[in-house]
Amino acid sequence: MRFLITVCWMRAFLGRGMNRPTAMLAATLLLADAGASHAVVRITNDRGGQIGRYVDRYEKLRAAGQAIIIDGLCASACTIVLGTIPYNKICVTPKAELAFHGAWDFGSRGRAIPNPEATKDLFSMYPSQVRRWIVSRGGLSPRTIFLRGRQLATMYRPCYLEAQAAVTRKRLRGEANEGSTNPRGAAGGLGHLR
Question: Which of the listed CATH numbers 3.90.226.10, 3.30.9.10, 3.40.1180.10, 3.30.420.10 matches domain 40-158?
């Protein structure tokens, strides 16, 4: 399958006046880049956790060039994804729901104690449109506020999961015919954050 795609691209480049070695290189690079662009992490039910762990996790995903699909709850420290992953690598589904609140620490006897400094740092990580939305809702506080639906859709591009699933199914059928040993196809499947 990859060979056929490379040949098709090579013919397209040759038709544009490129010599054969240049066309082959261009087609191969294009195909290699297309495979890398399918690296996707899907967030479906992430209730958050320690801020530092999420910053580390998302920095690694950003360095790997992975795209993020928010397809359910992304709460608390999970929302750091908005400030760590490039804007053009994030999309949202109609089920996406972001939950924001102020940072806190465990105090004596296990009580949640607000942490104003960490809250300020957390707030500064968000893109400007998200910060404006948070301010319009009273800011980050112990009370949780939710960004979903139309408001979220105006800030982030929609994911086209049905179209993506059809392409993946088609790709899997094509690779199965070629004797592929990867049951998830060239895209490698969707990862999950928890």
Answer: 3.90.226.10
The CATH 3.90.226.10 domain(s) of the chain lie at: 40-158
pLDDT value at residue 39 = 72
pTM over 0.90: no
| Tens of pLDDT, residues 93-115 | 999 999 999 999 988 888 989 99
**DSSP string over the chain:** -HHHHHHHHHHHHHHTT--HHHHHHHHHHHHHHHHHTT-EEEEEEE----HHHHHHHHHHHHHTT-EEEEEEEEEGGGGGHHHHS-GGGEEE-TT-EEEE---EEE-GGG-EEE-HHHHHHHHHHS-HHHHHHHHHTT-S-SS-EEEEHHHHHTTSEEP-HHHHHHHHHHHHHHHHHTT-S-TTTTTT-EEE--
